[in-house]
Amino acid sequence: MPNPQGSAPKQRLAYIDWMRGLACVVMFQTHCYDSWLGGAARDSSFFRWSRLGGTLPAPLFLFLAGISCALLTGRMRQKGSTPGAIARTTIVRGAEILGLAFLFRLQEFVLGQPWAPWTDLLRVDVLNVIGISLMLMGAANWLVRGRAANVALAAVLAAAIAMATPPLWTTWRPRFLPWWLESYVNGVHTFGVPQPWLFPIFPWTALAFAGLAVGFILFANWPSQNPGMAAALCGAAGVALFYLSRWLDARPVQLYAVYDYWHTSPNFFLARVGILLVILWAVYAWCRWGLGQIGFSPLIQLGQASLLVYWVHIEFVYGRFSILPKQSETIPMASVGLLIIFTAMVGLAMLRTRFKGGGGDLLARLRRELVARLS
Quick one: which of 103, 116, 139, 342 has the most CB atoms within 10 Å? Predict the structure, then answer.
């Protein structure tokens, strides 16, 4: 990438890591309070606000996966990599994450015995959809080669996925598919109807493609001359999209036989993308002009090891090795547990960073070897 300001790429990477770390922190608080709070605390407004915050991490992770994919594609193109090599690298990374998702489900199934049902092995979780999204984005970037074409295709695919979601959850459900395969379309799992707490391709991959479009805009040549202006434009576009979604939702004419704003509506997708763009601008401003990069940043550290801390913290919050009794704690005690989890995960992320390049970088080396063999 051209770097007329000298440190611009470092700032861009820092704010992307900080934003991913923010997603980790919000995820921690959601999981900890959901797992540990009990009694009257579960009926409190504090718990309701905690659950509202829990709607942010998955969209953030998927949106950032798209931005990171655009950054990787741009860098490889600048180094002269062929479109096929770029696609293979992205697709292999996606397949690796999908494989890790199955491994994670296997771990949870084994540790959850004798209560966990075998069907949990096939549950579509956030890692599954991130892996599939990366593979789909790799294929999309292979189809078109210019940045403008990449932006246009990513935006069209994001819109198409969002608009196809309502019927695929209701009137056009692919009932002919086995439940475990239909679950990748609409999150039906074994419950007979789509479940909003799962992560099917529709609508979740739309957020990744939205991030891909934004990433190609952010890291194109003209914004790199003034990344602050590009981030500010993202924030302004986010506000506009949010209000556009509210205006569209208020229209008396609806396109769908079944309209569910909070789970499947394309209008809700627009609102989500708007919020993500505003967060992106705010995080950029915090890292560029605020305190985001002064001294040691635990959020940047978490962002650099987000997959690892996601994997590990689940077992100490929801799993057999939960550090506190489940659904029995007060808000102060659960908050102490959250502080312990946060501190431990920052420490784990630091260890991962320290040993990266040794055993901690084994997966990356295996991925490079696989890509080389496929070339």
Answer: 342
